[in-house]
Amino acid sequence: MSEDAARTGTAVYGCTLGAAEEPDSLLLPGHDVPLGRYTTVRRLLPHRERRMVGAWCFADHFGPDDVAERPGMQIAPHPHTGLQTVTWLVAGEIVHADSLGSLQPIVPGALNLMTSGHGISHSEQSPPDHPPVMHGLQLWIALPDEARHQPPRFEHHADLPTVRDGAATVTVVVGELAGARSPARVHSPLLGAEVSFDGPGTLRLPVDPAFETGVLVLSGTATIAGTELAPGALLHLGRGRSDVTVEAAAPARLFLLGGTPFEEPLVMWWNFVGRTHEEIVRARDDWEAGDRFGTVAHCTDAPLPAPALPTVRLKARGRTGETR
């Protein structure tokens, strides 16, 4: 790898301080995953070549799907630990219900942010009279060690800050961008923003040079930092940038992820984010026993059973996929 094609950062591996080369940009193709009985998503994170973007550790893009004659999203109660969930819609409606007693519909332009802490359960279901198209994102944020044992909470933000620049409208979902700050409460330096072009345009977005950045296209096509991008992949951009240039030749919609590198190794299995194999086993046992995660009172569907654990120990991995 040439010096022009890589940026060098400093990382700690065990007790050794060394230099780790990171690519300036990396295109990460997604893959299709069935979610429940009626929904298929394109999973963009984690990816074998780059598991995270900052603390963003999971990204599913679903739709646009014609659900006029179908039930839409129907995900029965299930548990989470060690993470925050971000639900963002481009089209459609989903009703969130959780074990705190929350019952909150979400529509395009609003944010549902659920913080699992030490444990929560929830369901995500389209209402019977849902709109004919469903399209959006489901994202996870890994909680740092000091936050992951806290009590769970839920936030709904219907009025997020926006910035208009030519043909582009930027909605700041998480963090701060271009002088606008989201009210969403997160636990590490993060950015999440939707960029929507209503026609041809070029937009230069300021980013923190300490952040790594990911960009995905929800609809249309765009050129980001010189790379053409269409729905179905995520472009990872390395640290050291002060801005990211986005060009669209026609209407397009993108989502920007960013954050400082998350250096705590994670064990991710099913709906749990932990640090050790033993933590995941305890979380699964608690869910199967009906402990810790509460009951989703506003949903009558039976809770999802936990899948069987693999026959080998689950290993903690760093943000680039290395085993710790």
Describe this structure in words.
The chain has a single domain, classed as Jelly Rolls (Sandwich). The protein is built from 1 helix and 28 strands. 4% of the residues lie in helices and 50% in strands.
Note the topology.
Layout: E1 6-13, E2 16-23, E3 25-29, E4 31-35, E5 39-45, E6 56-66, E7 74-80, E8 83-91, E9 94-98, E10 103-106, E11 111-115, E12 120-125, E13 133-142, E14 153-157, E15 162-165, E16 168-174, E17 176-177, E18 180-181, E19 190-197, E20 201-206, E21 212-219, E22 222-224, E23 227-229, E24 233-237, E25 243-248, E26 252-259, E27 267-269, E28 272-274, H1 277-289
The assigned CATH architecture is Sandwich
The H/E string reads: EEEEEEEEEEEEEEEEEEEEEEEEEEEEH
| CATH homologous superfamily placement | Jelly Rolls
Number of strands: 28
Family: Belongs to the pirin family.
Domain Pirin N-terminal: 41-141
Cofactor: Fe cation
Binding site for Fe cation: 78, 80, 122, 124
Attribute tags:
metal ion binding; 7-stranded antiparallel beta sheet; Jelly Rolls; 28 strands; metal-binding; mainly beta; 1 helix; 324 residues; disordered N terminus; RmlC_Cupin_sf
Briefly summarize what is shown.
Its cofactor is Fe cation. This is Pirin family protein. This protein is mostly beta strands.
